[in-house]
Predict the structure.
Amino acid sequence: MSKPERTSGRASKKRTSGHASGKHRTSQSRVSGKPKRRPDGGPSEWLVPIRESSYAHLVPRNTSPAGSNGTPFESRLRTGADHLPQVDRKVWRDRLAEFRRRKSVAFAAQPAVSGLNKFAPLGPTVVLHGQAQGDPPVGGRVSGIAVAPGGQLVYAASANGGVFRSDDAGATWHAMMDGFDIDPQGFATTSLACGAIAIDLKDPRRVYVGTGEGDASAVFNSRLVNALPAYRGIGPLSSDDGGQTWTVEQVDAQSPELAGEAFFALAVDPNDRDSVIAATTAGLYRRSRGGAGPAKWSRVRAGLHCSVCVASAGGVVRFLAAEWGSGAQESGVVESSDGITWKPAGQGLPSLKMGRIALGVRPSDPNVVYAFAADADGALHGLYRLDRTDDTWKKVRQVPDVLPAKGHQGDYDLAIAVDPEDASIVYLGGSFFSDHQYWPASIWRCNIEAKNDSLIASSASIGTHAHADVHVLIHAPQRPNSLWAGCDGGVFLNRDPRASGMFGSRNTGLACLCCNFFAQHPTDPGILFCGLQDNGTARTSGSPMWENVGSGDGGYCVVNWADPKQVLIFSDGIVSRATDGGLSQSSWADQEFPWALMTEPIITTPYNPANPNDAKMVALGSGRKVSSQLQRVVYISSDFGATWSATVAIPTQSGIYSMAFASATRLFVGTTGGEVFRVDRNGSKWVIERIDNVSTGELGVTGLVSDLAIDWADSSRQSVYAVFGGMGDYRHVWHFDGVRWEARSGPAGSKDNLLDVEHNAMVVDPIVPTHLYVGADVGVWQSIDSGKTWQPLSVGLPDAPVFDLQIHPVRRLLRAATHGRGMYEYRLKLSCVIPSIGGPNGGRPIRVFPAA
């Protein structure tokens, strides 16, 4: 077994500029009842320590940007050093296309036998007792919702899990983009990152989806992606059969491509379903069909547009759109009657310091328009109303603080809906309730009244039982008492929003949870723990319905392989320890550490039943304050986290990003600056040696070391594999034999090498250590010759990024945590008793049982 518990990997991708998805929200400590700590210095204190990865330079070491190797990311960010390449937005689509081609070849090469081995889902399809008031079931992040007339047929577009459909008003959901293996060469379902969805209300089988998540667009622009993945889309999709099949639609040759961009909203012309307006990061686009040819999208307005809506009365259609300005270009609202020619909407909208805008209108009344705006820092700018009687925008007074001061996040979660029957009732959605209450979602009902030539809001909070970080609010058509909300916790429905109604969970089957890292029971493969983005840590005993056991943003998890009742989980700078297998809330005890990275690596020793005492050894890569400076350190415990007896200072200014125990006396450490250290215990001391720059053959690239994996073929435990994130060089996997480094990413210019995309996780088969597996932002890859050649191993696996890979030590199951579609497992080749050739059990035979 290479890594019985997660031994390395990149930090949880967390929201950056705008600080979204729970990064400021902290949950309640199980023991003391006090809120967990969080940075109070505002955005810079929260964001700067988060290392970027996906779009960092990965370049040959001798050509790395000046000062990037070993220089703190904070310094490079503040000085504007050239460490963030200008990545072509089409690169994501192109990498996916190449992956498609290789996957098709690998699929065709498999023997045509029944029962083809492929990845199978493990859940979670839903997480029970989620982190919202009332402990409702929760799902993953949802960016858009479309509701058909009657309210029974509902579509949900998830941030990285594709589109889900419900035919029973959200009671159950079914994934609609998992047809990737029916046609391995089909490209339409490649991107599961969704930002917007809309339907033809007269025929709700016609569905439009904008791929690429607009809510996370600021993440992509700043290239700080360790919090939320800023995965780009492949452009607009459409379906004529309710999501059973999808078509990638074309952009005309005169307009910038939408592949690699992101969508915020879609608006369908109620009189012509082939006419659709899209608000995207590349501009305002219009879909039209000319003659018998295919529909095409054309850009009708440049600039980032963050909202679009449509209303119709008396046969007249009016589109409204909001531009998110930057620099000299101010934010504002425009309108059009044909979707082609646009002009400013109304007069007097104050654009000074205005940032993102969300627009709201009654579908049957274009004469009253609302603009809900955040300022340039993500705080509340105001709510404004345009009345056609005087064509002037007026500010609504006494609007509730939908975006609290310590949360802001208005560039990430900003939503508005207007009551379909009463234009004076408006619903606003933001982050969380207040600076002191992080559980209730920030959803408010505002009743607007005209008093003394002013508009005054009387408001009431109605988001009590919904998950925080609200991305969309929408009514079922012509149903004012059916208000849907999409948020970081999935989908919620309020059936009486005008009065005393509360939101209820609608998340069963909404399997779009964003998994970070996981841990597994050493002998019972059904017991798993997994850290989830903004949904805490979840546990299962074999059911697809998991249960929440930890709060905040879940990260690494560790199970003691000799005493599986002992469990450690990491969340928001706190390590929590349980002694009953995580079954009861009362058993968890929290320990705080200086917080250096969003998700800090915490690992244990290799599975070795012959030496059960080794299971007590764990290490945490973190930091400590020394003279007001954060020093990078590894905390080591010999009693499985009850106490931390040793602190090993790592001589680096970069962050500790990945770690792997080769044995109880040897530890490898990787950093954000491309450094690799070997740490050996010598008596009571730990001796540190930097090995990435050995004179006999240094590591050939510089970049973020996203993972480390021990080479079990080397009984001396000198050998290790290093895995790199970033882009710019296909050589993402390197091998160190104790003397020199060698690229193990396949031959250059070959179809047998790795794609140049971020690689996040690696595992070496302890039984057959020539077999390697890596998890990337595009698929799982396998090498059967120690990295000389690579092929996709992704049959049955959704095209969501893979953040963690492990092999179950007894059942021979390769397991993958995807960031957007839950967890999956793949049955490796089975045997009865296989003599070890230097694996983690010290060379003794291993009994391997058939998979369950």
